[in-house]
Structure to design on (204 residues):
């Protein structure tokens, strides 16, 4: 009887020790998970892609409704504002409406691609307007109809990007020509008025 009693007690003790060990293990795991949940993110790279540049009053000149896809061109205008303390250079442009997107300027009434950096100054702005600097959409894939939206994505020198949604508007003006980089060739640009005359633009 004595030996039987001690055997039962030993079994109870063993069971108790096993339960205590299991409880301790669960407590340690819980502490570990709790510590992990309070660990800050290892990297803040997501914040690095958030641009400090905003766009105001962006619009695009409408094209003729019967354009041949891949041949028409148009301009994007508005204001880019840099709210940061670092100058930002525009390094890349893309659009859902055109196969080629470039930054252009007007010199002696002719448009040409800008050679060199185009900067949105720190705590300043870059004006894009007819007769001056602007974003050029080339090889447009389909007609741009008044009331439509055109998306243009800009990439800056700090790696950030800005997606612009520009409203297509109807304008009227004299025929202008587009001059290539070397200034040797010119081709018809349609009826884009690049003179900067406000009376020639219907902002609807």
């Amino acid at each position: 009887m004595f030996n039987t009693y001690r055997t039962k007690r030993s079994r109870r003790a063993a069971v108790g020790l096993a339960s205590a060990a299991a409880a301790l293990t669960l407590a340690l795991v819980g502490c570990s998970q709790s510590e992990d949940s309070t660990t800050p993110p290892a990297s803040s790279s997501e914040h690095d892609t958030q641009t400090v540049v905003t766009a105001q009053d962006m619009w695009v000149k409408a094209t003729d409704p019967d354009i041949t896809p891949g041949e028409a061109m148009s301009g994007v205008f508005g204001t880019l504002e840099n709210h940061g303390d670092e100058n930002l250079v525009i390094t890349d442009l893309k659009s859902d409406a055109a196969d080629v997107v470039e930054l252009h300027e007007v010199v002696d009434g002719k448009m040409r691609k800008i050679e060199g950096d185009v900067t949105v100054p720190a705590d300043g702005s870059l004006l894009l307007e007819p007769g001056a600097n602007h974003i050029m959409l080339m090889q447009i894939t389909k007609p741009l109809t008044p009331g439509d939206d055109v998306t243009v994505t800009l990439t800056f020198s700090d790696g950030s990007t800005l997606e612009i949604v520009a409203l297509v508007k109807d304008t009227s003006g004299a025929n202008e020509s587009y001059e290539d980089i070397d200034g040797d060739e010119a081709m018809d640009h349609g009826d884009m008025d690049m003179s900067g005359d406000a009376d020639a633009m219907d902002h609807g």
Observations:
- The radius of gyration is 32 Å.
